[in-house]
Every structure is written in structure tokens, then in C-alpha cells.
């Protein structure tokens, strides 16, 4: 009987791409891949270790699988990903049911690690994180009509609240030729929406070409006929260039959607975060983007309760959110992460204050997003069909304003024919369900 391997991948889309490469390597080695880790002989937990909540989710998943192992339903548990890389010795020490813990630099050795674990060895391997493979095959885990393209690895920004540089290593771009080849291969497999990701997509190319080359990469990928949408995530505000905006403006295939994680608008807080800019410079950037890209959808993320955030800083942030009216926004209470500079800062904010400020921002944003949804009534949206909701008795999908997992859905009825999953259709918006548009397929 072939050994069955199942994986639980947690955290961001970048981690998901790593998981897809791990699964491909294992399948090539002759293992059988199953969709449910609970039905496998070997369970791999590809962990996230970014903030406390994500760490806890990873630990809970491992503990759940440990119960199955105690019942004899699993032969081995292997932990990979960011939590493993960040807490190398602690994972095996604290979670004795785990059979192998490997850092990201050992991902290429995953088949050997599984083999050793099945023989009863306790495996702990943490080679240089720069050995993480940037190229290789993938076993696509997203629906067939969309996929992520990771264009670089690591990060050099060193924001004081963030452990990613210490976990993933220095920033390193992939070659354009390899990325274009992979984009073509994904399109050949039926991918219609390609989502560009990295720790900082706008830094792409600086390390190997000597200049920001994202716009050139997008121009080449946009030439792939089978792709219909190209979506851009994780854009650092300092590196939004005129070349990038002009490329987006000139090519209809590149969605007018920018994920722009700003974190804050107060100049003093941004400086403490080791980020540049202030409210005035960010307002100018947003004005420029909206002037160049008609109808652009802007997504951002913010942090409340960063050490030293005064009432004045928070008020400035609140007013900024009200005035900028981001179409999409997520807000998180600051998470004090060991090993980061900000964890050692004085003037840490009480947890209750962090949460209260987060709630205020999200309440404001709910009203803004509701207004945005109302503004769509009477308009026609292009929607990528994702399925049929049997309870609501209608179809659902995503518009250009909706990135998978982080944004909303468009719900619609179809009277003339049944649309297929992965098809693009036109939907006339007639109402809103909360912040999600509702309409009829035309």
C-alpha cells in the first residue's frame, strides 16, 4: 500500500505556494497525496508564525493531529513553515507527538524527512533558509481557475513589529524568464486569474536587475492570452512607481486593484515602525493612484496600539480612514512578537486599548464598505463564478474588487442558463447583503 500524505497549510498565500511545492516533491517521490490530513498516514502542518493568533492556530492544528496519532490513525506528524523556522528547538520539545520539524531551507529534502520519520527517527533539520527552493514544480491547491505566482522570497524592509526577515531571510527575486515560464504553465492548466505575491512585490528585481522591474514583468505576463485577470498584492507604498501605474493603466488585463499595506498614517508611528512617510505623503500617493487608475480598488491593512501610539496618533489614523475611504481595509491590534525591535519598546499599549481602537477603525470601515457596495447598484460587474450556494439558492463569485479569502463575494441569480465554475459573467447589481453586492446575471 502506498503511503498517503495529507497537508494542512496555514497562513498566507506565500506559504501556500511553498506547500504546493512540497506536495509536488512528495508526489514525485512516489507518495500518494490526499486532501484530508486526518485520512493520511503522514500529516504535514505547514505553519504560520507571523503573529500570536497565527502561532496558536498552528499549535492547535498540531495538537488535533496528535490525538489522531495517539489513536493509531496517523503514523507521523511533520511540522514545516514559519513556526518551525522561528521556534526551531521549542516545537519538538513542547509538542512531543511531532516526529519531524524542519526549517524552510530543508523543504527540498521533504521526501527524505518523511522516509526517516516513518522509520521511527526524530528529525530536526534547519539548514540555511536561503536554500529554500525558489523554482520547481507545484501541485496546485487552489481551484483550477486561479493561482498565486510568488515572484520573490524574503524581505529586507525590517519593520520593527515584524519577524518575517528573521524567518524568511533576505529579499531575493526570481528571474523573469522563470516566472514567465511558470505563468504560461499555469495558464495552460486553466488558470484565468493570476495573483502576484511576495513579501514586497514592488521591490521585485532590485536585487538582480538593479532597479524595480515589476512593471516589466507585468508587461510580459499580460501577453499570455489565456490569462484574463492579473491581480497585484503586497505593494509597499514607497515603491509605487509611475512605471508601475502607467503599466496598470495601459493594460486592461491587469486589474485596477492594489493591495497597499500602510499600517498607519502618523509620521511618528511610521518612523517607529521603521517605515517612511506620513499622512500628507500617503494622501498624496493615494490621490495619485486614483488619478492615474480610474475606478481603482485600494486595499490596505492597519495596526492599532503600536507602542507609543497616543490618542492624537489614533485620532489622526481614524480621520485618515474616514477621508481616504478605502474600498477594502483590514485592521489588526498590535501583536508583541519576541525577537522584534518593537517588542522591546517602552510605552506598550494595554491590550484593551489596542482592541478598542481596532474595533473603532473596523466599525468606520464597515460603513465605508457599505457605501461602496451601495454605489455599485445599477452597475454591471464582471464576475468570476466560484460556485452555487444551495442555502441562498444563488450563485456567487468575485469581481475585480475581491481577492480570494481576504475580500467579499458577489451573489447573483441566473435565469437563462447555469454558469460554470471558473467562467466570467456579467452581473447587474440590484442590492447589497451587508457589504456584498447582489444581482442578476445578464
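^ C-alpha cells above, recovered residues below v
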Amino acid at each position: 500500500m502506498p503511503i498517503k500524505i495529507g497537508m494542512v497549510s496555514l497562513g498566507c498565500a506565500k506559504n501556500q505556494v511553498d506547500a504546493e511545492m512540497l506536495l509536488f516533491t512528495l508526489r514525485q517521490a512516489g507518495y500518494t497525496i490526499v486532501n484530508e490530513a486526518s485520512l493520511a498516514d503522514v500529516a504535514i502542518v505547514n505553519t504560520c508564525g507571523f503573529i500570536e493568533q497565527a502561532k496558536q492556530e498552528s499549535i492547535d492544528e498540531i495538537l488535533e493531529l496528535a490525538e489522531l496519532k495517539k489513536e493509531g490513525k496517523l503514523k507521523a506528524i511533520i511540522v514545516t513553515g514559519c513556526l518551525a523556522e522561528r521556534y526551531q528547538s521549542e516545537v519538538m520539545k513542547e509538542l512531543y507527538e511531532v516526529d519531524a520539524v524542519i526549517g524552510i531551507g530543508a523543504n527540498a529534502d521533504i521526501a527524505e524527512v518523511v522516509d526517516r520519520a516513518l522509520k521511527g527517527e526524530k528529525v530536526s533539520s534547519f539548514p540555511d533558509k536561503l536554500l529554500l527552493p525558489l523554482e520547481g514544480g507545484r501541485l496546485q491547491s487552489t481551484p483550477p481557475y486561479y493561482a498565486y505566482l510568488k515572484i520573490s522570497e524574503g524581505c529586507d524592509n525590517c519593520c520593527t513589529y515584524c519577524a518575517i526577515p528573521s524567518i524568511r531571510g533576505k529579499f531575493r527575486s526570481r528571474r523573469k524568464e522563470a516566472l514567465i515560464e511558470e505563468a504560461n504553465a499555469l495558464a495552460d492548466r486553466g488558470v484565468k486569474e493570476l495573483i502576484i505575491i511576495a513579501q514586497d512585490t514592488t521591490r521585485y528585481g532590485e536585487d538582480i536587475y538593479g532597479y524595480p522591474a515589476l512593471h516589466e514583468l507585468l508587461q510580459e505576463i499580460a501577453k499570455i492570452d489565456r490569462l484574463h485577470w492579473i491581480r497585484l498584492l503586497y505593494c509597499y507604498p514607497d515603491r509605487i512607481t509611475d512605471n508601475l501605474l502607467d503599466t496598470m493603466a495601459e493594460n486592461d488585463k491587469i486589474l485596477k486593484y492594489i493591495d497597499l499595506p500602510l499600517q498607519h498614517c502618523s509620521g511618528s508611528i511610521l518612523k517607529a515602525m521603521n517605515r517612511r512617510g506620513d499622512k500628507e505623503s500617503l494622501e498624496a500617493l493615494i490621490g495619485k493612484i486614483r488619478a492615474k487608475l480610474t475606478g481603482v480598488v485600494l486595499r490596505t491593512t492597519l495596526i492599532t496600539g503600536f507602542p507609543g501610539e497616543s490618542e492624537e496618533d489614533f485620532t489622526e489614523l481614524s480621520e485618515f480612514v474616514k477621508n481616504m475611504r478605502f474600498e477594502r481595509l483590514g485592521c489588526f491590534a498590535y501583536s508583541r512578537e519576541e525577537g522584534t525591535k518593537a517588542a522591546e519598546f517602552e510605552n506598550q499599549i494595554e491590550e484593551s486599548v489596542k482592541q478598542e481602537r481596532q474595533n473603532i477603525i473596523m466599525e468606520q470601515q464597515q460603513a465605508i464598505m457599505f457605501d461602496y457596495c451601495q454605489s455599485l447598484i445599477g452597475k454591471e460587474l464582471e464576475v468570476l463564478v466560484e460556485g452555487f450556494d444551495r442555502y441562498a439558492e444563488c450563485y456567487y463569485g468575485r469581481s475585480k474588487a475581491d481577492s480570494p479569502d481576504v475580500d467579499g463575494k458577489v451573489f447573483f441569480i441566473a435565469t437563462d442558463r447555469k454558469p460554470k465554475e471558473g467562467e466570467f459573467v456579467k452581473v447587474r447589481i440590484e442590492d447589497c447583503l451587508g457589504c456584498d453586492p447582489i444581482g442578476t446575471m445578464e
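The radius of gyration is 22 Å.
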